[in-house]
């Protein structure tokens, strides 16, 4: 009996060690299962769920019991009028007042203006007007004739020289080039679809022809692009983002290898413009080289390559921090959502966003003060909460990874507090790159690096037009003709930019005709 007890005592440490190893293995497998469930749920949401990251009102939790109604009360405030409360959208008839108009009159023939009963002459007593809209897409063959005169005495010839075409020796005028460029870069219409569309109105324009026109147009427009780029780099706040693009014929790379389109956008308080730049990779050196003369605040996501840029202050993106927690939150059951740490993290982010939105109505100086006195304490509290949770959560779990990402990113997000002009996130760059992503889904790839560079240039100008509410078709029609018929040293480039007061006044989309 004593020997059995002795044997059991000797075996006990081994069993305890084995049990501990099994517990560790079970915990590891449980975390793997949770991670796989989260990944599967995330993929299902991306494929079949809504893209919006807004939360239901029923999900909102008043984490910060600030008694806002009482805090902002003013019982003597003047009630707003109904007109101020209800902002009525313009009707279609009101919108078309700026459209070119033509009149059609339905009238009786002269021999019908006599009464068939008594043969008296009819007298007009009124009319009824009906407003309609028609759109006609047609090709017009323009016959340009230059008439030559000769002095009968001196024998000297005189003629009015015809203006230069944007592409000399081509059949296309600026208006057709403008339509091709606008359809590709603003309407996401691939060139092969444009080619088919032109066939339906009697024009046989191959995809190759349209592609050549775009590249040659971009060569003429390069002076606009370079001036925009120089102006953009002279500012002290930029938003940056990047997305993939496939280039089929690129030296030293397979056709399936990813290349990248980088996007640089000015801040909210500067002239609105965006510059796209094609690069063969995502290496941080590309942004470093592009921004070699830039100094100031760089608003970006969490990509580490931006840290290579010198003489800049990196401003992080709260939207990316929030998204990490939101992706977990939507996978939870309704019961699990109520008191979850994920919900608490979202509450912090939502509160910061609410305060930031409140600050946007203030002047730059007042907004800076508001950030320091009102938003900074909330961010500091959020950071302390993250540090505390990092000590108790499983860092390998989805929630743990979100915590680690937030702890690493939040100090850079808090740089947004340093200037009243800075944004809380990098959504401006994401919005700027979205039109390119939508277009890429349609045309899939660029054939050569030259085509990718051309796309970058034209997207830059088109999207800068749209950011300033310019009609890109009218802008391109004007600017292509102007560049083709002007000497470079005589160009007033500042006045030709899509964000200039002159161009905005001339081609704003609310105007029906050019001034």
Record keyword descriptors for this entry:
two-stranded antiparallel sheet, single chain, elongated, 49% helix, alpha/beta, 515 residues, 7 strands, five-stranded mixed β-sheet
General description of the model:
- The longest helix is centred in the N-terminal third of the chain and has 47 residues, at 2-48.
- The protein has a five-stranded mixed beta sheet with strand order 5-4-3-6-7. Strands 1-2 form a two-stranded antiparallel sheet.
- It is 49% helix and 8% strand.
- It has a domain at 322-418.
- The chain is built from 18 helices and seven strands.
- The chain starts with a helix and ends in an 8-residue tail after the last helix.
List the helices and strands and how they pair.
Blueprint: H1 2-48, H2 68-71, H3 82-85, H4 92-95, E1 148-150, E2 157-159, H5 174-185, H6 191-199, H7 207-233, E3 237-246, E4 258-266, E5 274-279, H8 284-290, E6 296-299, E7 312-315, H9 318-329, H10 334-338, H11 341-359, H12 364-390, H13 398-413, H14 427-443, H15 449-467, H16 472-484, H17 493-496, H18 501-507
Parallel strand pairs: 3-6, 6-7
Antiparallel strand pairs: 1-2, 3-4, 4-5
Helix pairs in contact: 5-16, 7-15, 9-11, 9-13, 11-12, 12-13
């Amino acid at each position: 009996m004593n020997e059995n007890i002795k044997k059991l005592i000797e075996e006990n440490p081994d069993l305890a060690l084995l049990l501990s190893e099994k517990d560790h293995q079970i915990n590891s497998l449980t975390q793997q299962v949770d991670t796989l469930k989260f990944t599967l749920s995330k993929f299902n949401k991306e494929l079949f769920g809504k893209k919006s990251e807004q939360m239901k009102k029923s999900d909102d939790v008043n984490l910060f019991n600030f008694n806002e109604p009482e805090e902002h009360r003013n019982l003597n405030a003047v009630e707003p009028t109904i007109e101020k409360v209800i902002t009525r959208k313009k009707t279609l008839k009101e919108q078309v007042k700026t459209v070119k108009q033509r009149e059609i009159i339905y009238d009786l023939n002269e021999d019908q203006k006599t009464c068939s009963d008594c043969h008296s002459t009819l007298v007009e007593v009124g009319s009824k007007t009906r407003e309609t809209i028609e759109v006609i897409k047609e090709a017009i063959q323009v016959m340009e004739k230059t008439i030559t005169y000769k002095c009968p005495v001196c024998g000297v010839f005189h003629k009015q020289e015809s203006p230069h075409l944007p592409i000399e020796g081509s059949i296309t005028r600026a208006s057709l080039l403008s339509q091709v460029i606008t359809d590709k870069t603003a309407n996401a219409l691939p060139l092969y679809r444009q080619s088919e569309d032109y066939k339906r109105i009697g024009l046989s324009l191959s995809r190759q022809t349209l592609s050549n026109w775009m590249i040659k147009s971009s060569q003429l427009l390069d002076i606009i692009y370079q001036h925009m780029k120089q102006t953009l780099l002279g500012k002290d706040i930029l938003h940056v983002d990047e997305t993939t693009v496939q280039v089929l014929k690129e030296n030293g790379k397979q056709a399936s290898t990813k290349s990248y389109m980088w996007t640089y956008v000015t801040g909210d308080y500067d002239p609105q413009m965006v510059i796209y730049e094609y690069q063969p990779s995502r290496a941080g050196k590309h942004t470093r080289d592009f921004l070699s003369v830039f100094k100031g605040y760089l608003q970006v996501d969490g990509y580490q390559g931006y840290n290579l840029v010198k003489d800049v202050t990196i401003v992080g993106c709260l939207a990316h921090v929030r998204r990490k927690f939101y992706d977990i939150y939507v996978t939870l059951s309704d019961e699990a959502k109520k008191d979850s740490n994920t919900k608490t993290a979202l509450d912090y982010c939502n509160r910061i966003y609410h305060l930031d939105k409140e600050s946007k109505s203030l002047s730059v100086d007042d907004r800076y003060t508001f950030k320091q006195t009102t938003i900074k304490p909330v961010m500091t509290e959020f950071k302390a909460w993250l540090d505390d949770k990092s000590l108790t959560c499983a860092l390998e779990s989805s929630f743990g990874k979100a915590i680690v990402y937030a702890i690493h990113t939040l100090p850079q997000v808090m740089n947004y507090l340093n200037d009243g002009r800075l944004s809380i996130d990098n959504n401006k760059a994401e919005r700027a790159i979205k039109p390119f992503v939508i277009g890429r889904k349609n045309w899939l790839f660029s054939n050569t690096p030259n085509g990718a560079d051309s796309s970058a240039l034209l997207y830059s100008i088109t999207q800068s037009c749209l950011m300033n509410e310019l009609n890109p078709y009218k802008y391109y029609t004007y600017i292509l003709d102007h560049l083709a018929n002007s000497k470079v040293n005589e160009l007033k480039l500042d006045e030709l930019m899509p964000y200039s007061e002159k161009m905005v006044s001339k081609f704003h989309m609310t105007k029906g005709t050019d001034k």
